[in-house]
């Protein structure tokens, strides 16, 4: 409970005081100790104050997993301003929406942003653009800011961890523009603390950070958890399975968090067996449905005592965890129980609480649940009720012991001829097939049945299969109405920057070759 009244910058201050010479991060560009990171944070914070940044103002960050990203997040937090990370894969209209919606005062950008979107887009919308690891005459330079800020004085800023917002994370909404979830200092520290506690993390641990720091999983479960445990993190600028495996061996990584797709790519890499992964101890698999077969392989082949977690941007990442000593069935079939002081319930469409085993919407309440959506009171009201319960839009069941099973997204449920079909059930079976590497199931429109079931399947290297073979396999284990009408073999599945399968884009792709009745 030591974390309860702390702010994000105080977490760094504690670590720098207690372990000044302990390495905090390595991004393949630079190694930094806690003391060095604190010095850079203080210089940058002083420079931002000189720029005119005040408490509560929004600072945009469009950078990959670099040490500068870590320093910016912490410097912004130190002066009570608010971090607004951008997905580095956003298009110009998405960036413009976020900059205008959040009313950002300063935006930090990388060269990739300048090349693909252009600084000109930002100049009329913000007061300052700051370039990182490259220079432009019309923008300020990060390295120069550090020089100007060194030795500068910082004003005393009163930050309330419960009320004051640390970051606004824009969710990748399936419809319309992204919404900005406001996460307070307490929100993010709470989830980081639950992660550290659940995985028994300490200063001797080494975290691999393959997930982007602009994503809630990377920012909180990886980055904040490292700082809270005063450990070390290895930042991957761009995810590649072979690089992740190489870094685990080289840096003796002990904690490996990732989304299922990343773990699947690592387990199936042709050189997997040549890497020494004996340093691995534990990690979290989350941010997308976790196939039981993948979890089994992580435990057997990678030696990871893996924890399964469930949450959302709006819950500051994880709200449930399986435990290190949980029974195997709980780890393979559930996403665990509610974290410390977290409450989970299942409700029907009338918002009535359902009994154990009944399928309904997952609703949760915890210290990690967001303050609300920025400048969106109506959407906040739809997601959060007056008692602080967050309505996730996910379907699930709770068992008698409080373990949560995910059935699927409410919006992804397929209704075929009046029958409710949950894609997750079919996907789990496909993942168990020895020839299949990845799979996703979506509904496609049909004038007779309403919707039909379509599975997109990516085979393992050198594997050969037919649609009939796959249907025959599924018919042995599923009710006939659940067996996909179409099974399409694909070379890849569209992914978000954080590694989630984008079912909306997949559906669009499948519709190109589908003629509905």
Automatic annotation (TrEMBL):
The keyword Ligase applies. Belongs to the ATP-dependent AMP-binding enzyme family. Residues 425-500 form the AMP-binding enzyme C-terminal domain. The lineage of its organism: Bacteria, Bacillati, Bacillota, Bacilli, Bacillales. This is Long-chain fatty acid--CoA ligase. Gene3D superfamilies: 3.30.300.30, N-terminal domain of ligase-like (3.40.50.12780). GO terms for biological process: fatty acid metabolic process. It comes from Brevibacillus fluminis. The keyword Ligase applies. GO terms for molecular function: medium-chain fatty acid-CoA ligase activity. Residues 13-374 form the AMP-dependent synthetase/ligase domain. Pfam families: AMP-binding, AMP-binding_C. InterPro entries: AMP-bd_C (IPR025110), AMP-bd_C_sf (IPR045851), AMP-binding_CS (IPR020845), AMP-dep_synth/lig_dom (IPR000873), ANL_N_sf (IPR042099). Keywords: Ligase. SUPFAM superfamilies: Acetyl-CoA synthetase-like (SSF56801).
């Amino acid at each position: 409970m030591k974390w309860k009244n702390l702010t994000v910058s105080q977490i760094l201050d504690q670590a720098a005081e207690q372990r000044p010479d302990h390495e905090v991060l390595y991004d393949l560009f630079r190694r930094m100790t806690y003391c060095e990171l604190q010095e850079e944070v203080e210089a940058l914070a002083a420079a931002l104050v000189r720029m005119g940044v005040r408490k509560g103002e929004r600072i945009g960050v469009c950078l990959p997993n670099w040490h500068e990203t870590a320093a910016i997040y912490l410097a912004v937090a130190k002066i009570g301003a608010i971090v607004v990370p951008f997905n580095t894969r956003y298009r110009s209209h998405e960036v413009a929406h976020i900059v205008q919606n959040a009313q950002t005062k300063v935006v930090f950008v990388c060269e990739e942003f300048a090349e693909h979107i252009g600084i000109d887009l930002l100049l009329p919308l913000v007061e300052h653009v700051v370039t990182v690891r490259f220079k432009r005459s019309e923008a300020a330079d990060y390295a120069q800011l550090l020089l100007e800020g060194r030795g500068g004085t910082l004003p005393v800023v009163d930050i309330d961890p419960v009320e004051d917002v640390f970051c606004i994370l824009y969710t990748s909404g399936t419809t319309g523009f992204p919404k900005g979830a406001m996460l307070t200092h307490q929100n993010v520290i709470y989830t980081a603390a639950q992660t550290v506690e659940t995985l028994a993390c300490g200063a001797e641990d080494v975290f691999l950070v393959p997930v982007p720091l602009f994503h809630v999983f990377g920012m909180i479960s990886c980055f904040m958890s490292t700082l809270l445990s005063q450990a070390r993190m290895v930042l991957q600028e761009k995810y590649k399975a072979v690089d992740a495996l190489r870094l685990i061996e080289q840096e003796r990584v002990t904690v490996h968090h990732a989304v299922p797709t990343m773990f699947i790519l690592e387990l199936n890499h042709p050189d997997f067996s040549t890497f020494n992964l004996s340093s691995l101890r534990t990690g979290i698999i989350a941010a997308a449905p976790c196939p039981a077969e993948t979890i089994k392989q992580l435990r057997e082949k990678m030696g990871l005592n893996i924890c399964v977690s469930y949450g959302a941007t709006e819950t500051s990442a994880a709200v449930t965890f399986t435990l290190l000593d949980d029974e195997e069935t709980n780890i393979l079939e559930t996403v665990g129980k509610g974290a410390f002081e977290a409450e989970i319930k299942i409700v029907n469409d009338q918002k009535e609480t359902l009994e154990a085993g009944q399928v309904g919407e997952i609703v949760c309440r915890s210290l990690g649940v967001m303050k609300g959506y920025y400048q969106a009171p109506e959407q906040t009201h739809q997601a959060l009720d007056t008692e602080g319960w967050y309505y996730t839009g996910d379907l699930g069941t709770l068992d008698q012991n409080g373990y949560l099973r995910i059935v699927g997204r409410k919006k992804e449920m397929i209704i075929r001829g009046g029958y409710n079909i949950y894609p997750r059930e079919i996907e789990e079976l496909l993942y168990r097939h020895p020839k299949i590497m990845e799979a996703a199931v979506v509904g496609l429109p049909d004038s007779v049945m309403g919707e039909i079931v379509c599975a997109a399947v990516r085979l393992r290297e050198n594997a050969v299969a037919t649609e009939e073979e796959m249907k025959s396999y599924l018919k042995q284990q599923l009710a006939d109405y659940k067996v996909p009408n179409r099974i399409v073999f694909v070379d890849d599945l569209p992914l978000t920057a954080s590694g989630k399968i984008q079912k909306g884009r997949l559906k669009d792709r499948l519709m190109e070759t589908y003629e509905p009745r």
